[in-house]
Structure formats: C-alpha cells, structure tokens
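User: Design a sequence. Structure:
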C-alpha cells in the first residue's frame, strides 16, 4: 500500500485531494523501473481506483511506509495540450532527474506525443 501525492502540476493528480494525500492504492503489476536522478520511475497497473494504469515516480532512497508516490500521467488523464492519454511507452530518465516517454492520445490535435517531465 502506498500513498499517492499530488504533483507540482495542478492538472496531474490522481483521485481526490485530502490534505496532501490523494488516496491509498495498490499496484497490480510493475514494468521494469528506471532511474531519473535519484528517483525511480515505473509504469504500473493499479488495483482499484478509476484509472487502470499510469507512469509513477518515487524517491529511490529507502523510506518507512507508506512510501509517497507521484503520478506523472495515467490512462484517461489529461494530456498537456488537450485530449487524454490512451497508452504509454516505456519511460526513460537522465541523471538530472528528467523523465521522457511517448504517449498515444485521444481527442488531441496529434495522435502521439513525447512527454518530458522535470
């Protein structure tokens, strides 16, 4: 069980905000994680909740539970220039902590985009 925290971008959050904790969730499966700086990035399916999967970021240093998790993007979530996400490519990270990934979009001016998260 992890806590999902609201991200710095107001359009990217998961669930309803209650203080700084959005809600508790469980991951059904994970794809291979990658590092972005000192943080761990992964694509995962979610058990429960309204969205089935997304791209997540956590601090890589060990922390006592519950571990805070940041949702970068999730299926059905808002895309930066309109529309919503329908599929994700594997995320990649660099030593500065930036995250890049491809995403298929619905209802957007373009069907596919490359996303970069600081």
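Assistant: Done.
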């Amino acid at each position: 069980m992890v806590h999902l925290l609201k991200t710095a971008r107001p359009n990217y959050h998961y669930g309803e905000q209650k203080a700084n904790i959005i809600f508790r969730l469980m991951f059904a499966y994970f794809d291979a994680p990658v590092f972005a700086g000192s943080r761990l990035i992964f694509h995962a399916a979610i058990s429960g909740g309204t969205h089935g999967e997304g791209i997540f970021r956590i601090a890589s240093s060990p922390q006592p539970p519950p571990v805070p998790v940041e949702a970068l993007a999730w299926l059905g979530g808002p895309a930066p220039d309109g529309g919503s996400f329908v599929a994700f490519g594997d995320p990649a990270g660099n030593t500065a902590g930036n995250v890049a990934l491809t995403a298929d979009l619905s209802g957007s001016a373009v069907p596919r985009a490359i996303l970069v998260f600081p």
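Confidence is low (pLDDT under 50) at residues 1-23. The longest strand covers residues 21-30.
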